[in-house]
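Need Formamidopyrimidine-DNA glycosylase's 3D structure for a figure. Predict it.
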Amino acid sequence: MPELPEVETVKRTLQTLVCGKKIERVTVSLPRIARSPSDLMQFCSLLEGETIQDVERRGKFLKVIMDEIVLVSHLRMEGRYGVYQANEPLEKHTHVIFHFTDGTELRYRDVRQFGTMDVLLKGEVDHFPSLAKLGPEPLADEFTLSQFRTLMKGRSGKIKPLLLNQEFIVGLGNIYVDEALYAARIHPETAADQLSANKLAELYQAIRDTLQAAVEQGGSSIKSYVNGQGEMGMFQQQLQAYGRNGEPCSRCGNTLERTVVAGRGTHFCPRCQKQMK
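Structure prediction for Formamidopyrimidine-DNA glycosylase:
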């Protein structure tokens, strides 16, 4: 599933590709992706005639800002957007097409078919349940160490599932949680209330540094992720823990291991990230 760096990259790409374009009509071949309004004809009619003003990101959600409405889109496992000329052949698994008045198209392709789109009036966005319950943005200026420490107070569960919880902090998924915990030398099964003040500071900085570095590299192309121009991310070349089980740790040379934490494959160094007793 695309995480914050990948969705941020898609956002930035779409800003350059579709802002200012006017939607002439919308074609939906897989109705369940167009989640709301539930009436497909209404979903399409609300979009027709709208001009894209901006593209924003909230956690792992894209927000396509138009004249009167906002399209809230979640890519889920393998959703991807691309801009094409109208006469270019359709790729398999293209489920939604936004036909622009200038003869180009924004196409949404999703092999796994898990992605979602919701069309909302601008005044409804802040109250949309999927967005309203999200935690703070880890790369925002207002996300300070003090705020992070406040969020951690009273937390006693394992640190990895906590960081994966989008109501706690948004945008972190399996890749970047593994990388941040590795950078901070914290075992993924460490209880949150066992982390010292210094460890919390190290983890806070590791989260921000890891995400920022990944954004600068256009994200990580582990499976099928590409941005809106079909380009791969390059941060996978810098991964220190995720997907590297059986390889030597770049810090100590010990063999990296894989375990399962809260149902998620988890990569770590048993020497650098010792589990607290």
